[in-house]
Amino acid sequence: MTKTGVVYLVGAGPGDPGLITVKGRDCLRRADVVVYDYLANPRLLAEAPPEAERIYVGKTRGLHHRPQEEINLLLAEHARQGKTVVRLKGGDPYVFGRGGEEALHLRGQGIAFEVVPGVTAAFAAAAYAGIPLTHRDYTTSLGLVTGHENPEKKMSRLDWEKLATGVGTLVFYMGMANLELLTRELVRHGRPPETPVAIVRWATTPCQRTLTGTLEDIVAKVRKQGFKPPAVIIVGEVVALRSHLAWFEERPLFGRRLLITRSAGQAGAFQQMLEGLGAEVVSVPTIATVAPLDWAAVDEGLMRLPDTDFLILTSTNAVEFFFDRLRATNRDLRALAGVRVVAVGPKTAAALAAHGIRADLVPNTYQAEGVVELLRGLGVKGKRILYPHAELARDLIPRDLRALGAEVDAPVLYRTVMPEHGGDELRRLFAERTLDAVVFTASSTVQNFVKMVGKDAPQLPRGVAVASIGPPTTKTAQKLGLDVHIQPASSTLDDLAAAVVEYFRHQPFHAGDD
Ligand code: SAH
């Protein structure tokens, strides 16, 4: 059976990649081809399978959009080849997105299509700027209006009189070039000049900026600030509620751009934590975890599991590599029957739990010393212990436990290495001069960072703060010529994030921001 092609017209939402619908994301995950434009967040493209073809049809520096006709043909052509095509459009496909034209064309060609709505810019900008588009005390109606300067269809085609007084809240898309005209027309046709106006630029993204004023003074304010598109213009009494309801731009790290250097597998949760605080996070791993050069020692340990009394795991990496190897050697959880499992701390215990193993023991202090204390208390004389660990781990655990009379197997389970790529990206980021801080969560990330950046590292541009998770990392950074500005009292990711917040509470924004 040949596959029949289909086109999904998918709303990507306004920018925040979290604002695509579940259905839209599912379409992306099944796509053979993704056709996308300027306003769809590129981060969403990562949802498509790696082998999917990605076709950009938006504006590129100065050049104009591909003609609509060409896009229509492109969609139809790929669908005819039996492909699943996702046409990813900013916001909602049927709100000023020319989705209607694309759908009509597909219908005309007899090509199957479905439409997945998206969060349109007006709704998103209003929500993130703290402006309820309707509120019983202020307005009961809402209009979405295009303010596009289309030379053939003059703006005068809009029925200004009805718009000005007939609709409560008005939201203009593509209206920046015509801002002067549209504010003037609204006032001329009966809207009070003191009506509040908000302009929200790059809504829902880390670059969101909001400018407020009135129909009378907003044009001058826009000029003064050099406020540019893409932006929506919200007109109406509800705009006044922003002074009570703003939240997005108020988050403690909003407007700050942070570089994190954890390994790809470990960056996610920390990145989310910082983004939740409002930061824009760029992740360039300066460390990668890889298998040991030889599995023999680990495999021997696995073979002896039936006679092993304790298994000690001291990182989430160790947990993942351990279970990978267990599976790769055709074993399953039963291999751990009878073995008591020691996790160094709650994160490691949680990683174990995700694999179906409840840690028997977690020390009070989440360090190697804690593990030794714990086992000393239980008595380990004559016990067999397996401690598979990172290549450069301290030898405290095997040394001390052996001294207590245990028989300890301590094979290298994984190694950390410097990633092959990333140096160029790091140098580009520093050249852009938009970073506010670099965050290091281990000594090795600093060492590799300096190597990857090359000779310029010690002269990080002024204004870039260095954050370190704790004293060993700080010491390494200082030895390599980096000043450390941020270090939490205790070495956890939560405390590191809190220290970053505390630091930026007192830092002015870069020049150029409002
Ligand atoms: N289909 C889209 C609109 C496309 S028209 C939607 O439903 O949102 C393009 C206009 O949308 C821009 O000129 C701007 O007015 C608005 N827009 C889109 N994304 C925006 C964003 N993140 N912030 C502010 N305005 C945005």
Largest sheet, order of strands side by side? Answer: 3-2-4-1-5
Bound molecules: S-adenosyl-L-homocysteine
CATH architecture of the largest domain: 2-Layer Sandwich
- The fourth-level CATH homologous superfamily of the largest domain is Tetrapyrrole methylase, C-terminal domain
Structural class: alpha/beta
Distance between the termini: 59 Å
Mean residue pLDDT = 92
Question: Roughly how much helix do the residues carry, as a percent range?
Answer: 25-40%
CATH topology of the largest domain: Methyltransferase, Cobalt-precorrin-4 Transmethylase, Domain 2
Overall morphology: elongated
- For the report, how would you describe the main beta sheet? 5 strands, parallel
Low-confidence stretches: none
Strand content: 15-25%
CATH class annotation of the largest domain? Alpha Beta
- Number of domains as seen in the coordinates: 4
User: What is the C-alpha radius of gyration, as a whole number of Å?
Assistant: 29 Å
Family: Belongs to the precorrin methyltransferase family.
Protein name: uroporphyrinogen-III C-methyltransferase
Keywords: Cobalamin biosynthesis, Methyltransferase, Porphyrin biosynthesis, S-adenosyl-L-methionine, Transferase
Organism: Geoalkalibacter ferrihydriticus DSM 17813
General description of the model:
The protein folds into 4 domains: 6-119, 3-Layer(aba) Sandwich (Cobalt-precorrin-4 Transmethylase, domain 1); 123-250, Methyltransferase, Cobalt-precorrin-4 Transmethylase, Domain 2; 257-287 and 419-505, 3-Layer(aba) Sandwich (Rossmann fold); 290-416, Rossmann fold. Strand 8 (196-201) and strand 9 (209-214) form a beta hairpin. Helix 15 (423-432) crosses helix 16 (443-453). It has helices at residues 22-29, 68-80, 99-108, 121-129, 160-166, 179-188, 218-225, 242-245, 264-276, 296-303, 316-328, 346-354, 368-378, 396-403, 423-432, 443-453, 471-479, 493-505; strands spanning 6-11, 33-36, 53-56, 84-89, 113-116, 142-146, 169-173, 196-201, 209-214, 231-235, 257-260, 280-283, 288-290, 310-313, 340-343, 384-386, 389-390, 407-409, 412-417, 437-440, 465-468. It is α/β, with parallel strands linked by helices and 514 residues long. The structure holds S-adenosyl-L-homocysteine. S-adenosyl-L-homocysteine binds at residues 14-15, 39, 89-92, 95-97, 120-121, 125, 173-174, 200-204, 229-232. Pathway: Porphyrin-containing compound metabolism; siroheme biosynthesis; precorrin-2 from uroporphyrinogen III: step 1/1; Cofactor biosynthesis; adenosylcobalamin biosynthesis; precorrin-2 from uroporphyrinogen III: step 1/1. It holds the Pfam family TP_methylase. This is uroporphyrinogen-III C-methyltransferase. Belongs to the precorrin methyltransferase family.
